[in-house]
């Protein structure tokens, strides 16, 4: 089993999403669900914006396809995913490789892969929250991964900007969910 870890937070050691991806990787390893770990830090090694030439290089796509489990740290920046993460998605959503169009509509081609998203956001965006319509991280990533054939799992820590106490509690709760995830 190969785990691919993707991080996209600019916040280094203070990053909430990196704390969660750390925790998820730790749990997966403890459960013997990954002998090999491949890491891609999209902040220390950013991918450039997509160009036609970049399509010719399939290394990012091959890395994704080779992984059994993909763990993605996804902070909410300006209501969406960091542009670093968008540049990675631009390389894995590839017609003819991860999806294709049929007479009945698009069909995802990625089979048997587990994708776990560690989502961190400063405010509240759950059902009924006033800002719910501005939530474009969970909805977007679920949409993209469903499109290519994967049902992603989410671990969400939110309200992190409310107060230090709230941040601590929210992270603790999310880490509690991680333990269940790996089981
Ligand atoms: C550039 C930037 C933009 C942000 N935009 C939002 C936002 O639109 N909504 C929100 O709830 N929080 C926003 N936040 C707060 C982050 O989502 C929150 O701090 C989260 O913990 C970030 O995850 P990280 O620590 O892993 O980077 C923003 C933070 C930064 C640095």
Automatic annotation (TrEMBL):
Assembly, per entry: Homodimer.
Binding-site residues for FMN, renumbered to this chain: 9, 15-17, 76-79
Role this protein plays: Also exhibits azoreductase activity. Catalyzes the reductive cleavage of the azo bond in aromatic azo compounds to the corresponding amines. Quinone reductase that provides resistance to thiol-specific stress caused by electrophilic quinones.
EC number: 1.6.5.-, 1.7.1.17
Catalytic activity: 2 a quinone + NADH + H(+) = 2 a 1,4-benzosemiquinone + NAD(+); N,N-dimethyl-1,4-phenylenediamine + anthranilate + 2 NAD(+) = 2-(4-dimethylaminophenyl)diazenylbenzoate + 2 NADH + 2 H(+)
Protein name, per record: FMN dependent NADH:quinone oxidoreductase
Cofactor note: Binds 1 FMN per subunit.
Enzyme class, first EC level, given as a word: oxidoreductase
Domain Flavodoxin-like fold: 1-177
GTP-binding found in the keyword field: no
This protein's record includes keyword Zinc: no
Gene designation: azoR
Alphabetized InterPro entries for the sequence: Flavodoxin_fold, Flavoprotein-like_sf, FMN-dep_NADH:Q_OxRdtase_AzoR1, NADH:quinone_OxRdtase_FMN_depd
Organism, scientific name: Sphingomonas brevis
Keywords for this protein: Flavoprotein, FMN, NAD, Oxidoreductase
Family: Belongs to the azoreductase type 1 family.
Top-level taxonomic group: Bacteria
HAMAP family documented for this protein: Azoreductase_type1
Cofactor(s) this protein cannot do without: FMN
């Amino acid at each position: 089993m190969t785990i691919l870890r993707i991080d996209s937070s600019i916040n280094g050691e203070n990053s909430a999403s990196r704390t969660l991806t750390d925790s998820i990787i730790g749990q997966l390893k403890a459960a013997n669900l990954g002998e090999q770990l491949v890491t891609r830090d999209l902040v220390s090694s950013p991918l450039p914006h997509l160009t036609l030439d970049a399509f010719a290089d399939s290394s990012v796509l091959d890395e994704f396809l080779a992984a059994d489990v993909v763990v993605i740290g996804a902070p909410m920046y300006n209501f969406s995913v960091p542009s670093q993460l968008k540049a990675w998605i631009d390389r894995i959503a590839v017609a003819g490789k991860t999806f294709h169009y049929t007479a009945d509509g698009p069909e995802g081609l990625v089979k048997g892969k587990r994708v776990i998203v560690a989502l961190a956001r400063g405010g509240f965006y759950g059902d009924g929250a006033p800002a719910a319509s501005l939530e474009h991280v969970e909805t977007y990533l679920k949409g993209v991964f469903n499109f290519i054939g994967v049902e992603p799992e989410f671990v969400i820590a939110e309200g992190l900007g409310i107060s230090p106490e709230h941040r601590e509690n929210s992270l603790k709760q999310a880490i509690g969910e991680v333990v269940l995830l790996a089981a």
